Amino acid sequence: MTDDVRTGPDDRILPFAVEALDIRGRAVRLGPCVDAVLQRHDYPHAVSRLLGEAIALAVLLGSSLKFDGRFQLQTKTDGLVDMLVVDFDLPESVRAYARFDRAAVAAAGEAPPAALLGRGHLGFTIDQGAHMSRYQGIVALDGQGLEEAAHQYFRQSEQIPTRVRLAVGEVMGRDGARPAWRAGGVLVQFIPASPDRMRMADLHPGDAPEGAEILSHREDDAWTEARSLVETVEDHELVDPTLTSEELLYRLFHERGVKVFNDQGVVERCRCSRERILGMLKSFSDEERRSMVGDDGRIGVTCEFCSTHYHVGPEEVGAGDGDGAGSAP
């Protein structure tokens, strides 16, 4: 394994394997990357924690893909935070934002992430480019947090025994510097050579006829051990700036032997540009573009992800004179 000299121990994804337990996984530790996203938006503390979890989960899941493309995590719910969006552009760029009811979140105080999410769905989208079909997986959000939603997705859709741990926190800066956000996560998956060893218990059939046999499968001992070890990870271990991913993995699996592979850096980077904004505006009708012209005679657009403001002259997108408020996608 070679250390990423650009980021040091932070903002990196570390793949690993424990061959004795037939597991593979990834550990992610995010520092300046997640701090840049959360500080820029200046969200309430509870919203920042929730979005930080979403960023760590998206990076953990998206980094398994072996092609150039985009992995997107998105929630749509009836909760106080009704939308989370995280784009992970492979192999390293991440951006994110949250949409929420500010007054309701303030009234809720430090509500747990599951309470903020509410009920709706969590979607994972894999986009391999214009010439390839998109894949989307969806799991219901019914009062659980992102960790449990990820477990539910893998049980129902991928049929791969999976355990995820996520954590987000603030670390006090040195010499009076402001606190900095950090996030971390670990994902392990049970992938034995024999597919039969991966079999999991079926979902309960609900109102099955009386006397119907409900099949069950005994959990593999290797997976039981691996899952139990990951469940011992404390939140502070995932966000501690003095603890590297290698040290954490050694704590967990040193008795079984853990092998780490080349790591991958992660950077906070938005893909918005003036050219993309112009292209987006040109997709609207003439009437819609005219209605976007503000009192200053220009169309104003603000990127939801990076908060960059763009001012576009109507003539640049074929909009004539008109009145109306600027819009933001």
CATH domain class of the largest domain: Alpha Beta
Structural class: alpha+beta
Low-confidence runs of at least 5 consecutive residues: 1-7, 322-329
Shape: globular
How much of the polypeptide forms β-strand, as a percent range? 25-35%
CATH topology of the largest domain: Hsp33 domain
Describe this structure in words.
The protein has 329 residues and is of the alpha+beta class. It folds into 2 domains: 12-195 and 221-268, Hsp33 domain; 274-316, Alpha-Beta Complex (CBS domain Like). 28% of the residues lie in helices and 28% in strands. The chain is built from 10 helices and 14 strands. The protein has helices at residues 32-41, 45-62, 102-108, 113-117, 146-158, 221-230, 235-239, 245-253, 274-282, 286-291; strands at 12-18, 23-30, 70-77, 81-89, 93-100, 119-127, 135-142, 162-171, 180-190, 259-260, 264-265, 267-268, 299-302, 309-312. Strands 1, 2, 8, 9, 10 and 11 form a 6-stranded antiparallel β-sheet that branches. Strand 13 and strand 14 (309-312) form a beta hairpin.
Structure characteristics:
329 residues, alpha+beta, Hsp33 domain, CBS domain Like, 2 domains, six-stranded antiparallel beta sheet, six-stranded mixed beta sheet, 10 helices, 28% helix, globular, disordered N terminus, disordered C terminus
Quick summary:
The protein has 329 residues and is an alpha+beta fold. It folds into two domains: 12-195 and 221-268, 3-Layer(bab) Sandwich (Hsp33 domain); 274-316, Alpha-Beta Complex (CBS domain Like), CATH 3.90.1280.10.
